[in-house]
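Cross-check.
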Amino acid sequence: MRTRSNFLLLSTLFGGLLFTCLFWMERLAINLLIYSVFIIAISFFNSEIIKSKKFIIYAIANLFAAVLVVINNSDLTLATYYISLILFVGFAHYQTIRNIFSAGLASLLQIMAVPASILRHLYQFKVGRFNLKPIFKLTKYILLPIIIVVIFASIYSSANEVFAHYLISISHSISLFISRIFSFIFQDLSIARFLHICLGILISGGLIITFYNRSIEKLESNCTEDLIRNRRDKDRKSLWFEIANTFTSTIVSKNMALKTEYVIGVISFIALNILLLMVNFIDISTLWFGYKPSGNFSADLHNGTNSLIFSILLAMAVILYFFRKNLNFYSKSKTLRFLAYAWIIQNLILIISVFIRDGYYIEFYGLTHKRIGVSVFALLCIIGLATVYFKVGKQKTLFYLFKVNGNIWFALLLIFSTINWDVFIAKYNLAHRDKISLDVDYLLSLSDKTLVVLDENRQILHFTEGTDLADRTYAMPENLSYYQNQLDQRIGFFKERYKEVSWLSWNLQDWRVATHFGFNKR
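Predicted model, tokenized:
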């Protein structure tokens, strides 16, 4: 136990020093890959962690996400890296957890509880006859009185201005004294750098040291993937029942009969199917075949798409409500299941309409992150409806839905991170400039990764007078060289930024841009 505590504490200290060496005044790039290798290596040699399939899978996923940061270096890849790192820590330290949401929560709890974890291991730290227990014994007699004195001193200072003046003077003198001692001992180390090291120690400790509280594992162990029929206890009343009964009297004093809930579900799904059938019929007849844009086309598509996506999410919530408990085991529930399946199919048709709307938007206005996001979200809705269909058919629980969808979402996140979206958008819009309204301002707002593509096409980055579908003329820039000047300014900013960082900030995209323009690091 002591040997493991010593190993974890030394690893945490080294991790803090490595953290500041890798990330101080640097951009996030290859340094993230190095840090991940360190965290995974320490976790591998930690005897407290079992090297199971989960450990290997999520370790590989985190390393893959780190490599994607080096290759694509986008906000999406950074988000994917952080998520993969949190999941790796969660599944590595708490391997009985089955759900990525529970793993993420457990990992965040471990990181927040790192001070307590470090103190626990410091108390167990021992090298030969040397240990820190005497210091802890002395600290517990001093720490609490100091906290009490600070609290009451703050209260008294707010009530007495003269006392507050003296308190500020004393605090300033103590701070100046500590600063001078720090500067004398660490002449080449600034306070900001020291705080950065402390931050690195806290983060490294949170990723390395297992938090002793296993409450999330215990809570999740009670969750099942298959529904079980529960017999209702008429004499047992929940807190919610008592509160509701106070305001509604006899309206909720009796549990809704299973047959009554079934009839309500059948009526609801019949009405919803008829309603959605009308919407789908209109979309198929007006949108799917022979669609001709008119009026405020952009606003119509935008508002329509948002409403449809919201309706799909609401549809899944309605299905989950009716098939949450004993109605799944009702002997006459075949009709309700058939109606639910029909509504799921109709919602899939509705998603096709969302894809078609988004396709028209891209056809007339080009690609943007939001339009790509709509397609990705529609794809996730299809996956969600498919798993809801399986949940209804196989009588699965909500926990099962979260588990399956969470794994699929994480896998898709890794897949989508392999694409350099900014460069893809710029190349697509420039290649289709004769068919779409080219928004040069949007292209110039993309990340530095697109500078090579924009520079190679700088001759077409000029104002082309045109009108949108509402016959409104686009605003003309100051002169024909307006966009070229903006591009040159962006290139200059990149040059300055690229020269300020070391090899630790190296990534493939910055290297390509720097090579194209012939920039060298200092």
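Residues 492 and 498 are 10 Å apart (CA to CA). The longest helix spans residues 334-365. Passed to J.P. for a second look.
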